[in-house]
Every structure is written in C-alpha cells, then in structure tokens.
Input
Amino acid sequence: MSATAKSKKIQSRVQANVDPKIKERAENVIKEVGLIPTAVINGLYHKIAATGRIPVDFSLTADQMADLELQEAIKNIPVKKLRTKKEIEDFFNNED
Output
C-alpha cells in the first residue's frame, strides 16, 4: 500500500432527519460562526468520544444572535418594487 493510500482515512456518513426550519436556522448559525455542518458534526463526535459527554458549546454572541433574528424577521416583509418616478413619489407621499 502506498503512503498516500495509508494517509487517507476512511469516512463514514451520518444521516439524521431534522425539521427543515430548525435545519435552516442552525445552518445560519453555523455559517455565522464560520464553520460548515460537517466540521460541527465532526467536532461534536470527537468531543463525545473523548469525554463521554454530549457538549453544547458552539454559540453566537448576543449581537450575532440579534442580527440573525433580525435577518429572519425581515425575510417575511413584503417588498414593493418601485419602477417609475411617479411610483417613488407616491410611495413617499403616501401617509398610510
């Protein structure tokens, strides 16, 4: 067996069913922290194997969490496209 073949590790796939909304929110947090889901899962498994405990220590700061919540809140606000000067004027002159 070559040195290259010896240095390659065999990987196993882990699959789980997750609520789509929870998955999206969690992946937003993971991305904001600067990681990818695979890194988080590998880190979690390493920690469990090393300590015999299930850790919960990946987290955002309070400011990052507030930013994420704001992004999720504004995602559902309808956007009105203003294409003409009249539409823009009407939008800003509307007192509703």
The radius of gyration is 23 Å. The chain has a mean pLDDT of 87.
